[in-house]
User: Fold these one by one.
Assistant:
Number 1:
Amino acid sequence: MRIGLIVNPVAGLGGAVGLKGTDGPDTVAEALRRGANPQAGARTRLALERLAARCPGADLSVAPGPLGADWAEGSPLTLDIAHMPAASGTGRDTQLAVEAMRDASLIVFAGGDGTARDVAAALPEGAAMLGIPCGVKMHSGVFAVSPGAAGALLADLVSAPDRIAWNDAAEVMDIDEDALRAGVLAPRLYGLARVPVARRLMQASKGGPRMDSAEALTAAAQEVAHNMTPGTLYIIGPGTSAGAVMRAAGHAPTTLGTDALLDGAVVARDARASELEALASDRPVRIVLGVTGQQGFLLGRGNQQISPALIARAGREGLIVLATEEKLASLAQPRLWVDTGVPDLDTALSGYIRVRTGAGRLTMMRVGAS
């Protein structure tokens, strides 16, 4: 199997600084101005380390420079640098890199939904794709559940390709970032792609019921709001489930951003990671989270404003999770996932967690390190 690797070096840049995506050079510039740190290269290295540990010397065709080769430097993998025009800093780079790897049967890319769209648009007929999750929005069904999972799946494909099944109808989804920043979720299906099938290693496309049990969820949120501990910073993650706690406390939530409450008052709206860390510097922290539909992610999908440092402060016992029973029943796998970008932290968060599905109603769910 001929495998190509492409990295979007700015993927996910806007997550921790509250920009809800990184589509377009203006957004990239603003993310950097706000102090964002690139993550895609480091996450790509994690995937390649897992591949190299099992299959040293595996052949990869890689895009040049920061689009691929820089992140594989020093690896025992056998690299063939693809020839392509100089990078322009736009999504066109990804498409040109795919075109330069037309003999590849699988394109591995590091990015989010926007990068997935660019790969799918240029992918040769019959070729497959696999995403190393690095973006802010990852609604598509083409991503591994974590960089390590991507590397493990690549090792399976290299060592025993005949054992891997394929899905020719994985959804490539994306949302309008400008609408998202205005508080409107507008998902769109951009096409179907061929991806490897690996139940424990691949995420589902985001979907499922949104609020079939609104009354029960509201009751659960009211219970959380009533029992908030004085002097504790409550970080309220994105989504309608977590946002129900803001409403129960008497405030309008930033549904697609991250807010913070202290002693019943709003102390941050649509906050960046740096703002939240400053607020949490001298007090206990608890984090209110929802669950992504079908995928089951708690952390690492759309809530990168909640940094690993804050998550470590809270710990698994400091996570307050709300979801409807229908949403939990519709998960692609009967567990929840965390992908903080820090493998040791993901491992520490693994175990069982209580999910509030109504007033006085709890469901125990297993949390896995993706």
Number 2:
Amino acid sequence: MNRFLYSVLLYAVLPFVPLKLWWRGIKQPAYRQHWRERFGFYDKNFYAKKSVKSVIWLHCVSVGETRAAEPLIKALQTQYPHHQILLTHTTPTGRETSEQLFGNSVQRVYLPYDLPFAVQRFLKHFQPKIGLLMETELWFNLIAACKKNEVPLLLLNARLSEKSAAGYAKLGKLVTQGLQSLNAIAAQTTEDAARLQTLGAPSVLVAGNIKFDVKPPENAAELGLKLRALLGEQMIFLAASTREGEEALILDAVKDLNILTIIVPRHPQRFDEVEQLIKNAGINYVRRSQLTAPINQNIKVVLGDSMGELFTYYAACDFTFVGGSLLNFGGQNLIEPAMMGKPILIGEHTYNFSDASKNALKTGAAIQVNSVESLRNKIQYLCNDAEKRAQMQQSSLNFSQASTGATLRIMQLIDTHLTQ
């Protein structure tokens, strides 16, 4: 495929895009807000066409990428105080997360769809001095427009699973030209770098995973103690960032166990859906948003329906399962619970965090499960073995502390291209 055919296909689906936004807006009304930005139209009264400050633009698709970028954004603000940080997002939850983390210290908009006219409008409006794409975001018209407009574009914290690499390989020349048009690539692991080079990337820096440099909020431990006081003295098991289909399996695994389970779905639009699952299972529960006094001992499940509290949940629990890994979703971020020194359970499907998962298992920070029965057995095992929990807690801290430094390496790469 070449870029012309790629653009033709995008224009072919363009008439259906407003319908998609309207449909998604049924569950998430935020999809119906700022929709003009998705086509490259920005409010001139709010987003100045020519900022007084030079713009450093960073693209973070959704929640995970935005949280991962926190140490990088803070480093950019410190090192380049006379520049304006512009964050672009694809999802409303990503945009909301950046508001929680950075407030008015950054600008934020939606990155337009990868249509030639839309990306050109975006670049003309904000005139960034450099563009930074988090993880593997390959938008080929955007890459070509940046090259044409002489905007250095870097792919940072890049990861590429075998499955994704095989998919990109089918696009042939389109991917090769796109990778070769980037000014620099920083990959998480040597495996990611090798796959990118196989697809045509000329050179790739292995910088590590920037997510290891994310620091828990200073008050996370204090907030965790306050939450723990509401939850009582029983053993607390946290199922964090769960995905579709996993909650039912987790409820089955903890059935009749003498523990309190906190379930925090990955996506907030699924809170009501998961609540219905808990009701259907006949389990006594309470929503976190309604938890204002110590719970009754007959409560067995807490539905984590709050935003921005994941570190608080980690601080409050005794051990955790990291979702997206029991079913084939590739796994969610196991680095955050490691930073909090928590014993970690993960499923078999961890290709989104392949290297980190292997190291966590190798160092004893994590235990892998492959079924509902296996999960149930490991929950019981950790409940009954305080010494094992203590060993895994220390292993988690050691594992996370040994993996830092990616932000510094990436900042050096950015500085090279920004000063040029």
Number 3:
Amino acid sequence: MYQEINFEKIDLHKKPPTEEPARQYYFMAKCRQWVDAFEQKKGRLPGACVVNMGCQMNAKDSEKLKGILETVGFVLQDSEDTDFVIYNTCTVRENANNKVYGRLGTLQSIKKKNPDMMIALCGCMMQEPEVVAKIKQSYRHVDLIFGTHNLFKFAELLAQCFASKQMVIDVWEETDQIVEELPIDRKYAFKSGVNIMFGCNNFCSYCIVPYVRGRERSRKPQDILREIEALVADGVVEIMLLGQNVNSYGKNLDVPVTFARLLEEVEKIDGLERIRFMTSHPKDLSDELIAVMAKSKKICRHLHLPLQSGSSRILKKMNRHYDKEQYLSLVERIRAAVPDIAITTDIIVGFPGETEEDFLETMDVVEKVRYDSAFTFIYSKRTGTPAADMEDQIPEDVIKDRFDRLLERVQKIGTEKSKEIERTVQEVLVEEINAQDASLVSGRLSNNSVVHFPGDASMIGKLVRVSLTECKGFYYLGEVAG
């Protein structure tokens, strides 16, 4: 829709529309007036820098922020020494918050040299009232604060910011709104993330996400399919369906639709070559979904299936709603249906009350599943979660010892798994010129592994058959197959 908007025809003398997204286009037109005035005064367009600090959901949100800024007339830049800086924050771990405070301190000195500079904060961290209170008190040079639920209002808030000489704060506790058809600036021309749902209902005891992202809200399947069709028409060949727990998609729709059924509809879209999705919660991964994955020609042979712990006792304390045996049974069914699938995972070490026996249960799952790779985390006490108040917090030296043992085993198994397809021919989606060697291009296999091989920019965005000549642990060197 935004590509068809004629901003010259928007009458700014009238009151703004009440319905979305027309209301936001009205405010984009208002912001364009501010940009015009800026250009007349300074002889150039204003610059903007969007800094993404979080997950794939945040990355998608950042693309929307960039799209709105570009539509308004800002020139996107990488440097934070510019006219408008916005941090799209994460709050999964408390050190993420500290990182933001540190960056704000640096920006204060930059803003002193450029008083017209504007600073905005959004994302999960802004959903915490104590964070907003701290910024109001200690970081008065911030101009705009908003959260995860009203990101669609960015243009309206920006206009308010331009008109105000005071800090603008607009953080919603929750919402059931999903606003479609706003501008977006994609990082890649050939692949894109697509939100299928927002929020989370799981309340894992260590996780702040449900408190800052709100309850699960699924987009209508027809809106998702229409977006993907438009992306494919614009050159996209790979999409990633995004949600905090994609397996629970569709439960809150007026007419419930399973995630497996949605995937079947996505598969029918002509021109789409690859489908990825994340994140999958084991408790909701159905046999229906496994069957759809098995017969699909487009769903990538990669599944991220967070374990978190191999101990049934700890899993119960984590409020994960499955035990060790159920997880292993699920993996067995997946591997039986899709033998060539790569399974990756998340594992937390040092959860409160974790004993050596509990840790060895985790190591046992690692040995049995043989993950292609794993993201391993030291438990981070997150204020505001039930786990933060649990007794038996584990000493740091014990956690570090367990973490090192786990990491060593995960990496060894991952290397062994990678070698299984060495010297085979695989299809690679070329993503970019290699950063270290301009004679090489880099891309990804269906199983998400990275491959580097000789090529040029004409290959970017194309699927190329590549012979994997050498496994280098977690990536491959290859050459175009003859």
Number 4:
Amino acid sequence: MMTQTPPGGRISGAKLATALGQWRRGGPHHGAADLAAAVEWQVREGRLPPGTRLPAERELASAIDASRTLVGAALERLREKGLVASKRGSGSWITLPRTSGLPVEPEHDDGAQPAIDFARASPPAVSALVPALNEAMPELAALASGTGYSERGLPRLRERIAARYTERGLATSPDDILVTNGAHHAFVLALRNFAGPGDRVLVEQPSYPNAIAAVRAAHSLPVPVAVERGWDVEGIEAALKQSNPRLAYLIADFHNPTGLRMDVETRERLGAALVRARTPVVVDETMVELDHEGDPASGPPPLAAFTGDGVGGNWAISVGSAAKTYWGGLRIGWIRASRQFLAGLVSARSALDLGSPMLEQLVLARLMARDDVLPARRQQVAGMRNTLVDAVRTHFPQWTFEQPDGGLSLWCRLDEPIGTRLAVAALNHGVRVAPGSRFSVHGGLEQWLRLPYALPDDQLAEAVARLGAAAGSVRGGGGASEPPEDVPVA
């Protein structure tokens, strides 16, 4: 099959040399490897997008003060990785790497171990999943005589979800619940209903990367407010006044990625500030049930308990999901909101989808009816946390972190600003990991790394060991601004 030359702009030798900067790092015998690594870095940062035509070997060699042989050897390394393609008479250009998309089990022609997915905070399915599925099949048969559409969701499931909110201290009716295709789908519905192109959306910094991406996909502008050891209430109040956001997005319970939990006093102050500003807030509660200390019903009430229920209604849109608690493949989530908000959300939904799948709703309703599933899950993930904490302390005693009381990840402060370079190097050691910059609105956070504890103990230990090997190859270098964008994050 002939190699097609893609359309794309050309980068000059001088401009590429400027972008590469001080690319020599390994001494005179590692020139080709250093140059290839520097170009690869530019590709993974998005600064050399696919289709970009590279300068001729002679031009580039002159621009970077290197031999043409060295440039040719570096290009050959990049061709082997699938980052560069060449055609006689047409030169060379940037292509999508073979690892783009990062399949779950990539091929390894060299006998290397399969990659460990250390970027998704999503544990395996609970053991009760398959029995619940088998029990749901007769119920599905009974429903099969109908249309199968339900814009608000299966009544029995909405009853279970509403009861759980009531147990946690927020009186809720099934009429306050809308079943969605996951929490992310719920957030996108809220974005569609409340914010448009050019509108500002207040988000935490750091925050869940897919939420930031959704804000940008809606052509809205994310406005970050720092979360460090806790929520900067005064900063959020100032942002509400100065930016006048159309929507806010907060993770109050076992924040992703920091693992922090908002205390009652902070919930009261933030709730009052949001009501004063008349700013709707999406409260992401996907981690709330993963309380390592016990049932979250004994913890702080939902943030929505502090965002009003008087004449102005309640300004919170609480979203939850089965993905973290039961299984990521169970694509069912929900919205808990005031009925005036729900009407608009249901209307917005009709342009995106026509309802959630019935079989999954039946399965989730059965799982939520059991008293033994979530306690077992909490015990399981607490054990995974302890395994990861021990492994990090063994391999990276110089890193620091706050051991979380819930959620699924450690937010590690590194001893050097190498987060993104470490994430890129880790791919070569068979580990996918999301650096701190991925959780930032405008880059930075290079001295941070999120490590999920959602894998079996042996894989967690192996992943940290591989990270240790990757870290040894990147120490002492400069910072970076963008992570490898082809690593999916959950």
